[in-house]
User: What shape does this take?
Amino acid sequence: MRRKGLASMAVQTVATETPAATGTPATVDLGPASGLSCRECGTRFPLGPIFACAECFGPLEVAYDLPLGDPEALRERIEAGPANIWRYAPLLPVPADVADKPNLNPGWTKLVKADNLARELGVEQGKLFVKDDSGNPTHSFKDRVVAQALEAARAFGFTTLSCSSTGNLAGAVGAAAARAGFRSCVFIPHDLEQGKVVMAAVYGGELVGIEGNYDDVNRFCSELIGDPLGEGWGFVNVNLRPYYGEGSKTLAYEICEQLGWELPDQLVIPIASGSQLTKIDKGLKELIALGLVADKPYKIFGAQAEGCSPVSAAFKAGHDVVRPQKPDTIAKSLAIGNPADGPYVLDIARRTGGAVEDVNDEQVVDAIKLLARTEGIFAETAGGVTVGVTKKLIEAGLIDPALTTVVLNTGDGLKTLDAVAETSQATATIKPSLEAFRSAGLAG
Ligand SMILES: *Cc1c(COP(=O)(O)O)cnc(C)c1O
Assistant: This one.
């Protein structure tokens, strides 16, 4: 792997400029990552636990010294790698020996060819796929982003991992911290689903319920970072956000590799803060730039729940800015009323010829059951949102049923049982006798 001398220089500056990073080692090895750059004005910064541009307050992104070279050799190297996200270590802000460190090794989840669902939705056979990220260690896509943030936290010398969470992130942080020997203290809205609360607590870290919604939790965490109370803490989605976001690129890499190193034509991606969607786009563009896939147009579709659809509303109104909403939906993992990456999502949907659409809670439940009954995949409400939106976009003629479509399921239905519990009950309850079973009329 090529590495710039810049990396070590960069970090010495960080140690003096960012007092919050107490204990930052003199050198930081984050593999091919060469610095941070502002998404708005392009200003470069050294690698460090910073997330906003000092010039214009725009969001910072990881910049790379990517291994440009023979794509065939890189492809072979990736294919020979472990069956988790670390097969893409040459393209991520992680040290080369990352696979040897204690972490949860998420990723390489199934890309399911969903022919039964395709038949129901009127999509050509062999063209519809579900990328099922419920197969990750804590049963949501969040393990991918946390694994990246953990490496950044290690590199910057943090000893406590933290986050503001809509539920899944808290569990992913708790588990990753437990495995890596970090302390964790995570913050969630107090009224989350039981499955999310239990999963966030069971790994033994501190779990704090905040009386408010996610946007209140996030605001609180931003205050905590600026306070001595939060000193030495790595907030995976705040001061480590640039690194965190890179984890979502692995979804793009895996989808293309699993399609035989080809870009899909259409992707349907859920939107909470919008980070995942923007980074999947970044990952696809990198694969093209590296020559790992042939360049062709692809369309990105964003999916929201009607009860929290600020990006969808802006898309439909033709606005460039996203007006915050107060969330009220069963899709709590997506319930961010003021999404940080909203404007970038709008830009990507428009640039690629995609769209942003939403479905109501009833449609979410129907879609969860549709996916379960056709493909044997039990999705959480966020998966109901993407499948429901896919159905709606096919019916509206915006998704072409003759082209390859990948729909993301980002979480496990066991965490949001309430959504379907009422309508998913035993068909019959009977005495343990053949007579009783015959009477129930279920034989044959
Ligand atoms: C966090 C989350 C997302 C996407 O979140 P972004 O903030 O948009 O990156 C999608 N699905 C589930 C289940 C999640 O927990």
Summary: The chain is about 40% helix and 15% strand. The CA atoms of residues 315 and 356 lie 6 Å apart. Residues 140-142, 168, 270-276, 333-334, 380, 382, 410-411 surround pyridoxal-5'-phosphate (CB under 6 Å).
